[in-house]
Design goal:
The structure holds 2 protein chains of 2 kinds. By secondary structure, chain A is mainly alpha-helical. Chain A folds into 2 domains: 1-174 and 234-262, no CATH class; 282-498, no CATH class. Chain A has 20 helices and 2 strands. Chain A has a two-stranded antiparallel ribbon. Chain A is globular. By secondary structure, chain B is mainly α. Chain B has a domain at 281-496. Chain B has 21 helices and 2 strands. Chain B has helices at residues 6-24, 27-55, 77-100, 110-129, 133-152, 158-188, 193-203, 207-224, 232-239, 242-267, 270-275, 279-299, 304-324, 328-359, 364-367, 370-373, 375-389, 395-409, 413-439, 454-472, 475-490, and strands at residues 58-61, 72-75. Chain B starts with 5 loop residues before the first helix and ends in a 6-residue tail after the last helix. The chains are: A mainly alpha, B mainly alpha. Chain A binds chain B through residues 64-68, 72, 134, 137-138, 141-142, 145, 152, 155, 157, 160, 164, 167-168, 171-172, 175-176, 179-180, 183-184, 186-187, and chain B through 386, 389-393, 398, 400-401, 404-405, 408-409, 416-417, 420-421, 423-424, 427, 431, 435, 438-439, 472-475, 478-479, 482.
């Protein structure tokens, strides 16, 4: 009974938060207090749940029988606990950041913004706790729809057109592929529950399994596997806090989370390994990693560069999951956590630069590290994590993925990982170098910039809340490098080995 | 006992209400009578459904004249299911009509509106309850004639043309149907549907039967608005008064679909229709065309009523697709979508009625900025639209779920792709509305309308809420739909 309440409250908390936020729209301070309190309450509930799961508990709850034989069901397993903690924990920090950003930039429709934000977190919790594929699918679609108003926040033609891409790709892939995959699984296996070892074992031959896997891999558009990645750069039209929490953490992680979940609990790693039906996925994922990195290398717009970096990093998770070894599954889960912390830091920094200096292009960032040392230090730590260098969390996950690829003698994966590390360094380090080691543009150099500065005044650091947020996530990125024991234990429980 | 006369009362109550309303004449009195009559009718329909679900088919000899001399009324779970949809829609539209027709129908014609709605209701319910092929034709005409006049009541002068167009097409349809019935009478010597069913087996394969099947199929398809026989529908829905559009969208085509199912599965028998002839293949082809062509046309509309009308033609394709699969699962998916689509489209038209009242039209130029000016209505339209797409958590999703799994059960894997691809077209036409409502500034001459009056808003919202409710808890609706499919397919009760 208490378990039931525990599960239900993880969904109800953000839902009640949404309602109160909508009601408190007229009083910004109260509204923001409600967001913050909701986030803190949710995070503590989520931590409690993760602690229970670490202790061996597997709470489950059937909400309603939707169709005869098919229920909406919540069931927690270690992977879901990891995702729940990440999304709710980072919500607190990004709420602080959002408050600074939305006020600093005098954005309109802030109530709608905070309500939809809470809605997206609600959907993320639902995805994390889903006990079967149908429940997961419902929250997955809900997440697409509730983030639509966030992407179109500015209401401009550009926002509308980008949101068309966003919605078109995400709804299109999920209806055309994921839903057919789901229905096929239901017809073939007679169940949609998540079970250790998978539910398709013995029901489907190698070719059938491979075809079904195609539907899932491309149907989960939120994982941004090429060629269905375009929604992610399109989503960058949203205000930066949205890009930071949703399009670097909640939404995209929902995608790769679903991929890991499907590989482990629907198909079963051993089943896929023995059938050899997943052999093609690392190739596509490798292609995504490399080509997205090359696009990122050429992108001058900072957020666009970060978006393509995300496309590339998401495919790390897909690649790791489809290597199918227990240690690679661990790597995939570690990377979900590590990339979340690193990428949110990078986006926070990008938003700080925009708010303080009104700069959006990489080429404008010469010498900005002198004016915004905190921001650019945080950015550098995030970049280290993306490249996969110690002492940042990205190193740990990359280590696991690389050693899995080595021990499997999967040389393609090894090659992709090495090459992409070089490419990552190639598009992140120049930004750090520019910011700290190049002279800021002088007034004669760029009339436009001079005018720009005159207009906005000489800038310093971003608002305090934003600096605080990005420093915290940067510190966590380093913290996770030294202390990742709980995540590792949860990840091992998912992989079911060593 | 009164309950044993329920099959007759289902028709008699609204039928008798019509002349009473004409006598009453005044708008308020007519409305009260109509409201009372629909409430009673709904109660009867609901109790008939409960009865048929527990006890099976009910047979009632009209005026105690036993069939085949008299006209038998015969209702089973399938008929009662559709009757409940029709009666419920009537009950929802009536409270709505009071304000809903105030600006759209001239006040001296209000009593006519209510009287005709009663006749239309009686006709539709009669089709569902009668066990006689010719009597079915009579009720078809009763409902159709009432419908023509109701459409013509629309404020827009084009409503007259639309009504005339429907009159022509509807009459052709009814004529074809009655020719088909004549041929069947020639072959079997009976008009009683149950008798006809058993005698058709004895008659076996004959040209007469084949011709009858062809006439009846085409005739009813005209009333269904099965693509490409749908040309009357968009104009009729677009120019009729709003409550009429909502009522027709939810009921008229659905009842005709029921008739088609009845003839295909019960009377001719599915072996005759599907195995011996190419009917199934033809229906499949037309259903696929219906799912795509009108959906594309809907994308290019500039008027929300027309958009929804074309969407209806497209959604009818899903229902007939289920029929063409010739399996219990397919039929169940059809019955499910019949219910879910009535709920969704009825709700959407009701919401739209309120919007038309406030904005003075359903053209996209009038609906611009609706998200600001009428936030509740705009949001309700979006939710209904999501149900048209079939987003999980809405009724439309359940339909799609069953339709796709029925196709999979039949091994028709390519149909899966077709159904889902057509949902993507729905995404596009629904999102046209979203962008108009949320990304365009309200028109300059807009009188800052505010939401529709509660008497219109509440029934509309109730239906939209139903879309969500039946999308999350679909156990009841799917169990009933399964019973309906079994009754139609295995036909218990015939020859008893």
């Amino acid at each position: 009974m208490t378990e039931d309440i525990q599960l239900i409250s993880l969904l109800l908390t953000p839902l009640v938060g949404m309602l109160l936020l909508a009601l408190a729209g007229r009083w910004p301070n109260l509204r923001e207090a409600i967001t913050l309190i909701t986030a803190v309450v949710l995070f503590s509930e989520s931590l409690k749940l993760a602690a229970d799961v670490l202790g061996g508990a597997r709470p489950a709850l059937t909400l309603i029988e939707m169709l005869p034989g098919l229920t909406l069901r919540l069931a927690v397993e270690p992977l879901g606990a990891v995702f729940s903690v990440i999304s709710s924990g980072l919500w607190i920090i990004s709420t602080l950041y959002s408050i600074g950003y939305m006020r600093g930039n005098k954005e309109k429709k802030q109530t709608r913004f905070f309500v939809c934000f809470a809605g997206a977190i609600f959907a993320a919790q639902g995805i994390a706790l889903a006990g079967n594929m149908l429940t997961l699918f419902m929250f997955y679609e809900a997440m697409t729809l509730i983030t639509y108003p966030l992407v179109t926040h500015h209401g401009t033609d550009h926002a509308r057109n980008s949101a068309r891409t966003y919605l078109g790709v995400l709804l299109g892939t999920s209806i055309a592929f994921l839903l057919s995959g789901l229905l096929a699984t239901w017809v073939i296996a007679g169940t949609l529950d998540f079970r250790q070892g998978g539910i398709l074992v013995g029901h489907l031959g190698a070719t059938g399994t491979a075809l079904l896997l195609v539907l899932y891999m491309f149907g989960i558009g939120k994982a941004a596997l090429m060629p269905f990645h375009r929604w992610l750069p399109a989503a960058m039209v949203a205000p930066t806090p949205v890009s930071a929490l949703l399009h670097a953490v909640a939404v995209v992680k929902a995608g790769v989370f679903t991929i890991v979940k499907v590989i482990v609990y629907i198909f079963g790693t051993d089943n896929l390994m023995s059938l050899g039906s997943a052999d093609w996925v690392p190739v596509i994922a490798g292609f995504s990693i490399i080509s997205a990195s090359i696009v990122a290398l050429r992108a001058d717009n900072l957020k666009r560069r970060l978006a393509y970096s995300t496309v590339s990093q998401l495919s790390y998770v897909t690649l790791a999951a489809t290597l199918l070894a227990p240690i690679s599954i661990v790597g995939a889960i570690m990377h979900i956590a590590a990339h979340a912390l690193g990428k949110i830091t990078l986006f926070f920094a990008a938003g700080s630069i925009y708010t303080a200096a009104h700069k959006t292009e990489v080429s404008q960032l010469d010498g900005i590290g002198r004016r915004m040392p905190w921001t650019m230090t945080a950015f550098s730590i995030g970049a280290l994590s993306m490249i996969g260098l110690p002492p940042a969390a990205g190193f740990v996950s990359k280590w696991y993925i690389l050693s899995a690829a080595m021990s499997l003698e999967h040389w393609l994966a090894v090659g992709v990982l090495v090459l992409s590390t070089l490419l990552n360094a190639g598009y992140f380090l120049p930004i750090v170098w520019r910011a700290f080691f190049r002279e800021p543009p002088s007034a004669d150099d760029a009339h436009h910039d001079a005018h720009h500065d005159a207009h906005h005044g000489a800038h310093g650091e971003a608002p305090l809340l934003m600096v605080f947020a990005q420093t915290t996530t940067a510190a966590m990125t380093i913290g996770l490098f030294f202390y990742h024991e709980p995540v590792l234990r949860l990840a091992r429980a998912v992989a079911g080995a060593f | 006992m009164l309950t044993q006369h329920f099959p007759a009362l289902l028709v008699v109550v609204p039928l008798m209400a019509a002349p009473l309303i004409v006598f009453a004449r005044r708008s308020l009195a007519s409305w009260l009578i109509a409201l009372l009559a629909t409430a009673v009718t709904f109660g009867i329909a609901a109790s008939l459904l409960a009865q048929t679900l527990s006890d099976g088919t009910i047979s009632y000899a009209m005026g105690s004249w036993e069939a085949p001399l008299g006209i038998e009324y015969r209702i089973d779970a399938a008929g009662a299911f559709v009757a409940v949809i029709v009666a419920a829609m009537g009950l929802i539209v009536m409270p709505y009509s009071r304000v809903g027709i105030a600006t759209e129908v001239r006040s001296e014609e209000h009593y006519l509106y209510y009287a005709l709605m009663m006749l239309c209701l009686a006709g539709l319910l009669g089709i569902l309850v009668t066990g006689d092929a010719f009597n079915l034709f009579v009720f078809l005409e009763v409902s159709s004639l009432a419908t023509y006049v109701l459409i013509a009541m629309g404020r827009d002068r084009r409503a007259l043309v639309a009504a005339y167009q429907y009159l022509l097409m509807g009459t052709i349809g009814a004529t074809l149907y009655v020719i088909g019935v004549g041929l069947l009478y020639l072959e079997t010597g009976t008009l009683n549907l149950a008798d006809m069913t058993t005698r058709l087996v004895e008659v076996g394969d004959s040209r007469g039967v084949l011709a009858a099947l062809a006439f009846i199929t085409v005739g009813i398809s005209l009333k269904i608005a099965l693509f490409p026989l749908h040309l009357w529908l968009p104009n009729a829905y677009a120019y009729a008064p709003s409550p009429v559009s909502a009522f027709l969208a939810a009921t008229a085509t659905k009842v005709s679909i029921y008739v088609l199912m009845r003839y295909f599965f019960t009377i001719f028998g599915s072996t005759e229709v599907f195995d011996a002839r190419a009917t199934g293949t033809i229906l499949l082809g037309l259903s696929l065309a219906a799912m795509f062509v009108p959906a594309v046309v809907a994308i290019f509309q500039h008027d929300m009523k027309r958009l929804l009308a074309y969407s209806s033609v497209s959604q009818i394709g899903y229902i007939t697709l289920g029929i063409s699969l010739d399996s219990v699962e397919g039929l169940m998916a059809s019955a499910m979508h019949l219910f879910n689509h009535a709920l969704t489209k009825g709700g959407l038209f009701l919401v739209l009625g309120g919007v038309v009242l406030r904005c003075g039209g359903a053209g996209f130029d009038r609906l611009a900025g609706l998200g600001q000016t009428m936030p509740v209505a705009a949001f309700a339209m979006v939710v209904g639209g999501l149900s048209l797409i079939g987003v999980p958590g809405t009724a439309g999703f359940i339909s799609k779920w069953y339709l796709v799994s029925a196709a999979m059960h039949e091994g028709q894997w390519w149909l899966v792709g077709a159904v889902l691809a057509s949902s993507l077209l729905a995404v596009i036409y629904v999102w046209r509305f979203v962008e108009v409502a949320y990304f365009r500034a309200p028109p300059a001459d807009h009188p800052a309308p505010g939401e529709a009056p509660l008497s219109m808003l509440l029934p509309a919202l109730a239906m939209i809420a139903g879309c969500v409710y039946f999308g999350i808890d679909a156990t009841w609706s799917s169990e009933v739909a399964m019973r309906v499919a079994e009754v139609l397919m295995y036909n218990p009760g015939v020859g008893q």
